[in-house]
Amino acid sequence: MRKIQFGSISSGTLRIEDLLPTFADELSIMEMSETGVKLLHEVEVFLGAPEDPMPNWESDTAGFILDELIDALNEYAPLHMRFGSHEGDGADFGWWPTDFDGCDTVSIDQGKNGESTFVDTDCNLYVEINDHGNTTVRELGGAIIWDCV
Fold first, then answer.
1. Which of 68, 72, 121, 130 has its CA 20 to 30 A from that of 33?
2. How far is 33 from 30, CA to CA, in rounded Å?
3. What whole-number distance in Å separates Cα of residue 69 and Cα of residue 23?
4. What does DSSP say about strands 135-139 and 105-110: parallel, antiparallel, or unpaired?
5. What is the pLDDT along the chain (149 residues), one digit of tens a residue?
């Protein structure tokens, strides 16, 4: 298992034949539940053996498996992070931060240049956002859960 890397894992394509194996590879590096293992087996069956004819990428099955992969990857997303397409580019898939709107927060410091430091009391997290949007999310004890530049 490796640490989730913030950012894109696939960009410039919406073709299922490109996305499905990429998402399956990303799921395979997670410490999977029984559901994840079954889903990867389903991907292997769909893709078939190298000597088999090409899978039917236009089928409902391909779309269903892709949706299931996205859902499974989101189960592994750390707090305030999601897996899916980038808000500004629907053909850029990866790990992206979510906003903190709707969270019960206590502001610690609001800088004049757009910096913000607060505690998310819903999730017991300490959050720092600098004037460039760089974000660090920590446990209240100080351990970094995720950060992005």
1. 121
2. 9
3. 6
4. unpaired
5. 456 778 899 999 999 999 999 999 999 988 778 888 999 999 988 888 666 677 888 889 899 999 999 999 999 888 888 999 998 898 999 998 887 777 788 888 776 666 788 888 888 888 888 887 788 888 888 888 888 77
